[in-house]
Each structure stands twice: as structure tokens, then as C-alpha cells.
Amino acid sequence: MHLQFPQLKHENEAKSFISELKEYNSEINGDGKLSEYLDKYSYEEWIEKINQDSDLAKVTKDRIPSYTYFYMNRRKRIVGIITIRTALNKFYLNENGHIGYSVRPTERKKGYATKMFKAALKQSKKLGMERVLLICDKINKGSAKVIKRCGGKFAGEKYSKYFDEVVEKYWIVL
Fold first, then answer.
1. 53 close to 68: Cβ distance less than 8 angstroms
2. Which of helix, strand or coil describes residue 69?
């Protein structure tokens, strides 16, 4: 299992991943807007977008620098997707945090989320980050467990008007 920066050759697998999330009526988090681009634009345009998001010279003031990765197995199947935001604006500080992720529904409860998250934390450190803020829905006990297993320290909860639910905040020092 490894983090892989998305490439054009992953298009069919990426479409399969998003299709499975939709089939299971699963929330789609941390996909760098892949789902939106597949619905409205194209996979190629999404690749351009995430390349631009990770190129600090091209990130505009209204954008957040970020790195989106596929978490792939040896057979090149996407098990998960994760986005690391290296800076936060007011919205991300209050609503989403530094990292968002999704795991393929048929691959859940197998420990992949924790492994993917640990790999993302290592990558965050390589990107020069010293700590990361994580935010999850209070009712998402699975995500909270992953965050705690990876060293997350509870920092409080609040009602999110944007998501219309209570969210929990955690910090991890890298």
C-alpha cells in the first residue's frame, strides 16, 4: 500500500472509486473535488486542478495549497483518497482542517484508513508541517478512532452551520 499522486493512467480506477462511494451513498471527503470534476468537467481537468493546487507558484489567493493522493494497493486499486492542505483559511480552520479522506466502502473496517492516515502524516511532515488540525463529524466514530489512533488530541467540538451538525476538532503534533 502506498500514497500515489494521481495520474492520467488512473482515470478508470478513479471513476470506479467515486462510483462505488456514490453507490453506497457514502460521504465523499478529501477527494480534491474529483467527484465534482467527474460530474461537471473531466478527469483530465481534475488532474490539472490538483497539479495547480500543489504548485505554490500557481495557487491563487482564493485557493488553499493542497496535495491529493490515491492510496493504492499492489494491484493498483484505489483503496482510499486523501488530501493534505498545507495552509488553512478561516473556512478550513473552522470546518475541514488540514486533512480530508475517504476509503472505498468495500475496503472499510480493514485498517486501511489508519494506514493511509499515518502515511499522510509522514507526508505532511515532509511538506514542512509541524502539526495538523483534523475535523470530523461527531457522529463519525470511525474517523474519530482513526484520528485518536494516530495521535490526535481532542481540542473541542462546535456546531457547524456549514455542515449543519456538531463537529469535533483534534490536533496532531508531527
1. yes
2. strand
Instruction: With CA atoms as reference, report the closest residue to 145 among 108, 174, 104, 105.
Output: 108
As given in the structure block, the three cell numbers for residue 91 are 473556512
pLDDT for res 28: 87
Cα 28 from Cα 33, distance rounded (Å): 9
pLDDT digits (tens, 9 = 90+) for 62-75: 778 999 999 999 89
The segments of the chain whose pLDDT lies below 70 read none
State in Å, rounded, how far the first CA of the chain is from the last one.
Answer: 21
Domain ranges of the chain: 2-129
In the CATH scheme, what is the homologous superfamily, with its name and number, of domain 2-129? Answer: Gcn5-related N-acetyltransferase (GNAT) (3.40.630.30)
Spell out the SS3 assignment of 89-127: CHHHHHHCECEEEEECHHHCCCCHHHHHHHHHHHHHHHC
CB atoms under 10 Å from CB of 36, counted, come to: 14
What is the Cα–Cα distance from 121 to 102, expressed in whole angstroms?
Answer: 15
- What is the per-residue pLDDT across 14-35, written as a single tens digit (0 to 9) for each? 999 999 999 999 988 889 899 9
Mean predicted lDDT score pLDDT of the chain: 93
Rounded to a whole number, what is the largest CA-CA distance in the chain?
41
Predicted model pTM: 0.91
